[in-house]
Fold this protein.
Amino acid sequence: MRNLKRGIIFFTLAILIPGFAFAADTWIIYYTRSGNNKTIAEHIKTKMPAAHMVEIKSNDDRSGIMGFVSSMLDQWLDRDAAITVEDIKPAADDTIIMCAPIWLQQLSSPPRTFIKQGKLKGMKMYMFITFGGKLNEEKQKLMETWVRDQGINLQGVYGSAVGGKTPEDIKKLIDEYLQKAGLLAAGVQ
């Protein structure tokens, strides 16, 4: 009887432990210049506490009017940004949630540079994008195509004009997007 109990326990652990050891993780990767995308990433983290949160940091000072001008020049000239990101190694079955601003109708240069580095190739990714005005539908499709051309399995893009919205308005919208994307477990609010 004792050996049978040990056998059952061993068998159960042999089945369960690999499932836990290799469970897929979620990575929330964000870039922010004004703070909006940090707010979004932090809000998503409250809904997914086990997720890893990683900031893409620009090595250039992008604050104030000169930072704005520098950022727009990067966009116009399609320049890669000098960035710093912690060395992450997501597993092939992990999920990436990218929170990033749109500048001049395209993905801002810091997250665009990060994507070009290839660390997300083959990954399943959802994008939560913000913009000041209105994003042209054709430009959004071009961005989606570009992301897929980088070898990323883009699952969905959820965008919001943030001008004139309070942080609470933005959080409510993000909750709707998370539900729509199927990223929240039932009952998580």
